[in-house]
């Protein structure tokens, strides 16, 4: 009876990477090895893996192959598509987060707390000043050292 082997990602994507694989069985058998291409989600697909961002920093990312997060509506903005997570430390200052430069349909939801207990702070869908239904939120971040998502 053939033995099945399964490997699960996520696998880092590195161009021109050579991967050597050894398959060993306990006795002599005819073996079939199949490689299937599986798309992995972005590294920041889950709240616990949020990517840290800082003031004045522009980040590029993707939601391709990301998963639904199951977060509650935030100020009436429902999560209807998969998303990714970013985090920063609040300073009590005004913060502007925008996806206008991406010119694609986005939603921004801002939370405070921890991944197991998120509190909605701000949200936006379809800023009329952005092309392509992109979004902008303007809010005052929470007290110094508060983690924002």
Give structural notes.
With 149 residues, the chain is mainly beta. It contains no helices and seven strands. The protein has strands at 51-52, 86-90, 94-98, 107-114, 117-125, 136-140, 146-148. It has a three-stranded mixed sheet with strand order 1-2-7, with no helix packed on it. The chain has a two-stranded antiparallel ribbon with strand order 3-6. A two-stranded antiparallel ribbon has the order 4-5. 15% of the residues are buried.
Structural topology:
Blueprint: E1 51-52, E2 86-90, E3 94-98, E4 107-114, E5 117-125, E6 136-140, E7 146-148
Parallel strand pairs: 1-2
Antiparallel strand pairs: 2-7, 3-6, 4-5
Low-confidence stretches: 1-18
| Largest beta-sheet characterization | 3 strands, mixed
Instruction: Report strand order across the widest sheet.
Output: 1-2-7
- Derived structural class: mainly beta
Radius of gyration: 21 Å
Terminal CA distance reads 50 Å
Order of helices and strands: EEEEEEE
Brief write-up:
With 149 residues, the protein is mainly β.
List keywords for this structure.
single chain, 149 residues, mainly beta, globular, disordered N terminus
